Amino acid sequence: MGDQIEFRSDVTVELIKHAASDADVIWAARVSTKGENSLADVQADPERSKGLINFLMRDRHGTPFEHSSMTFYVQAPIFVFREFMRHRTFSYNEESGRYRELRPVFYVPGPERRLVQVGKPGKYDFVEGTPEQHKLTAEATRGAYRKAYAAYREMLDAGVAREVARTVLPVGLYSSMYATCNARALMNFLSLRTRHDDSAFPSFPQREIEMVAEKMEEEWAKIMPLTHAAFEANRRVAP
């Protein structure tokens, strides 16, 4: 394995498999009134039932949105995953620094990343940093990463176990995981990890996890467009 250090300022999100559609919401909801006859709605045209989906979203009848499954592959800095795993309605499997030698890929905030925090807890805002602040941030993070990875390699080369050597690596190291969820869990995640001025309950997520959330939402909107539209129409409140 080579030791060429890579610096990134982006994230990777791929929807690798799914069993999720707007029709899933319809047949799951209609069993409450149609019983076994709701089986006929498994192949129903969801366009004819947009009103039902919107009703369920508006009145927060959430369980019909749970009969779906989406698995995402995510590459992001470790500090993003530690926030992500607060969402315990997802299932996770992450790469392990005990069982594999960790690749030297590290996060450096890009020039578009706002650096200066203003405001009070619970309502932070961020403003542009100066060129000097951006230069300092890039140089400081790269320098720390190089030093940390050199220490990691030194221990590995001396025969120290991977699970011990990894302790020197920072949370800016990229990791990878699979995250599986249903539509209801994803809407809860999006309501908290994206910022929209028209949300009923505004959230103020860290930008890096918002980058992941935005890519996940883009993929979800393709496979459940009516549910996504109802989510947005009802001001991004998870049912």
Quick overview of this protein structure:
The chain is α+β, with helices and mostly antiparallel strands and 239 residues long. It has eight helices and eight strands, in the order ββααβαββββααβααα. It has helices at residues 22-34, 50-58, 78-84, 131-157, 162-165, 183-193, 207-223, 225-233; strands at 6-8, 12-19, 69-77, 91-94, 105-107, 116-118, 125-127, 174-181.
Total number of helical segments? 8
Strand order of the largest sheet: 2-3-8-4
Major β-sheet, in short? 4 strands, antiparallel
Which spans have pLDDT < 50 for at least 5 consecutive residues?
none
Portion in strands: 15-25%
Measured as a percent range, the helix fraction is 40-55%
SSE string, helix = H, strand = E?
EEHHEHEEEEHHEHHH
Mean pLDDT: 94
Using only C-alpha atoms, the radius of gyration works out to 21 Å
Q: What separation lies between the terminal Cα atoms?
A: 47 Å
Question: Based on helices, strands and strand pairing, what is the structural class?
Answer: alpha+beta
Number of DSSP-assigned strands: 8
Please tell me what the overall shape is.
globular
Q: What's the layout of helices and strands?
A:
Elements lengths: L5 E3 L3 E8 L2 H13 L15 H9 L10 E9 H7 L6 E4 L10 E3 L8 E3 L6 E3 L3 H27 L4 H4 L8 E8 L1 H11 L13 H17 L1 H9 L6
Parallel strand pairs: 1-5
Antiparallel strand pairs: 2-3, 3-8, 4-8, 6-7
Helix pairs in contact: 2-8, 6-7, 7-8
Mind explaining what this structure looks like?
It is a single chain. It is built from eight helices and eight strands; from the N terminus they run E-E-H-H-E-H-E-E-E-E-H-H-E-H-H-H. It has helices at 22-34, 50-58, 78-84, 131-157, 162-165, 183-193, 207-223, 225-233; strands at residues 6-8, 12-19, 69-77, 91-94, 105-107, 116-118, 125-127, 174-181. The strands form three sheets. The protein has a four-stranded antiparallel beta sheet with strand order 2-3-8-4. Strand 6 (116-118) and strand 7 (125-127) form a beta hairpin.
